[in-house]
Amino acid sequence: MKSNNIETYNELVYEWIFYHKQFIKESTYSNYINIIDNHLNKDLGLFLIEDITNNTLQEYVLSKHNQKLSIKSIKDIMVVFKLSLRYGFKRDYIVSFDLSIKYPKVTSKNLIEILSSNEINKIVSFVMNSDDTRDLGILIALLTGMRIGEISALRYSDICFKSNTIYISRTLQRIYTKQEKTKVIETTPKTNSSIRAIPLSRELKEILKDQKYDSTDYVLSLSSTAVEPRLLRKRFDSLLSKTKIKHHKFHSLRHTFATKCIEAKIDYKTLSVLLGHSNIDTTLNLYVHPNISQKKKAINKLTASILR
Length: 308
Known about the structure:
about 300 residues, mainly alpha, DNA polymerase, domain 1, hpI Integrase, Chain A
């Protein structure tokens, strides 16, 4: 690479992000600046742009992998790097660049966490006997597949009891900021597909209607103050501890919902829409896999046909 006017990479990347900030959501900016501050600037900031080569970046990727960063995290870092580089090229700071990065192969795939029927029964029983409305978030996740941020942002004004529908158009998340370290914001979901309507079951409808609320109240707090995702995760962890269930991530509730839908023969397109996936392939890759009982049936059926 050859540069013009800007010499070091940190000059380039910070000029890009401060310019790019006006075109992106606050949460996206937070993710980008977090990557820049904690990775790119620390590791590559003092490099002269002209000294950054494909080999430099390939070694950087491998070093990050050796530091036990996930391949996804490394790719996220490189996305930000490429965006900053593209900006430099358009501004004539960089005359040319050629990137061809290879990522280490992932030898094992993380299995999604699914709750057992016994665990589901314990969780439902606990929530139904709880006086803490925050625990409703756990049941909502299990019965609708909503994401934790979507549940935290859910207000009674988002629920139509006449049409039995939950309308999802916002999410709550804690983001990184330089000045305040972190802060909680309420924003629109990441993709248009996440803005969706979910049917409200008769059972969940009765539970929600039974609460004393104003239309503008958040569902989990019955007030104008939201329960942020971090607190909802703590409630779930506390529930698991009290019911002597092994630790699961909150997201396992969403995984369980999706898996139960597959088992109930719900078509993949409908499930994809319910989950707010932007692409049906995401749904297929995550959830459409034969379980052990299905594999046994396949083997037994094949064996019977061969040995009959």
